Amino acid sequence: MGESKCTGKRWEDMETDVLVKIFKELNLVELSPVSQVCRLWRVACSDPLIWGTLDFGLLKSNFIQTRASPYIWVDDRSDKRLSKILRVAMAISRGNVNCMIFHYNLYMKDEHLNYISQRSPHLKRLVMPAWNRISKGEICLAIQRWEELESLTMPTIGHPPYIMEELAKRCKNFKELKVMGSFDLLFASAVTTYLPKLKVLSLRCSKVTKGALLCVLNSMEHLEVLNISHCLLFEIATNGRRQVIHELDDSILERASQLREFHHCQSRECLACQRMMLDEGILRWYRYEDWFWRQDEVSSLDLKDYGRLFGAQCEMLTSVD
């Protein structure tokens, strides 16, 4: 019998779409050497189908809180590790990242934000990390580069108007905002002034004043979806004391009834609401399940499971000596 000949294609001759389907099963650590095999493989490794969402939800900083600004100290190894991971991810993705998710307790610096904003020009959704160490100028510069941005999840910030103003100037398709922390009348006024066409707003697990909530409901004609689930709602009583609101009154419910979706929960029996009361409205996420901060009653904002690109294996293999 003669020798049988192999009729299958060699790896280097396979169609790009076939390679992409295979490489989609790999994580960031595995993709790095694969992308260096040959030009065809590098092109396949950079395909937008692989890099649609870059989820760093498992990546956290090693930090301690301090009394002086920026109120946080971060281990130098955490910064080096983050820089290393971002270099690999941005090099392979080649500008094809549409959605980027960072852990609430990742404390990046200006140089990190500048690096990713330069190399992900088509970003449409950003779940921000804490920005204690990011300057106002760098945030604005990043937003200027992300003209296609449509959705932002952000931790609380002391003076939010400049961010809302920058979004209004640069991001013409911006429609979705999630705030994690505190939402007062100043914040609400900034949103209604600069983002009047906002369609989705989630304040889930935030400390919200009644005045801020009414400001949003009375002023935002284009708002379709509002989530105030598990918020600590309060108003200032005539004696100057803060009074917690456990039940929504008619003035709120009537205005909210005009929305397509209105999510709310202020129940003493609800675990998330109990946590908000315990933490006095500023949720200490590190106390609870690591997936708790990823949840949202609004389907488009819920982060679901962690992404494949940066899974638990990557977390272990990307340490810095």
Please describe the topology of this protein.
Elements: H1 16-23, H2 28-34, H3 39-45, H4 48-51, E1 53-56, E2 63-65, E3 72-74, H5 76-93, E4 99-102, H6 110-119, E5 125-127, H7 136-145, E6 151-155, H8 161-170, E7 176-180, E8 182-183, H9 185-194, E9 200-202, E10 207-209, H10 210-219, E11 225-229, E12 232-236, E13 242-244, H11 250-256, E14 261-265, H12 271-278, H13 312-317
Parallel strand pairs: 1-4, 4-5, 5-6, 6-7, 7-9, 8-10, 9-11, 10-12, 11-14
Antiparallel strand pairs: 2-3, 12-13
Helix pairs in contact: 1-3, 5-6, 6-7, 7-8, 8-9, 9-10, 10-11
Q: What order do the helices and strands follow?
A: HHHHEEEHEHEHEHEEHEEHEEEHEHH
In helices, the fraction of residues equals 25-40%
Give the terminus-to-terminus CA distance. 58 Å
Strand content: 15-25%
Rounded mean pLDDT is: 91
Number of strand elements:
14
Rg measurement, Å: 22 Å
Shape: globular
Q: Can you summarize the main beta sheet?
A: 8 strands, parallel
With strands numbered from the N-terminus, the spatial order across the biggest sheet is: 1-4-5-6-7-9-11-14
From the helix content, strand content and strand pairing, which structural class follows? Answer: alpha/beta
Uncertain regions spanning at least 5 consecutive residues: none
Separate helix tally: 13
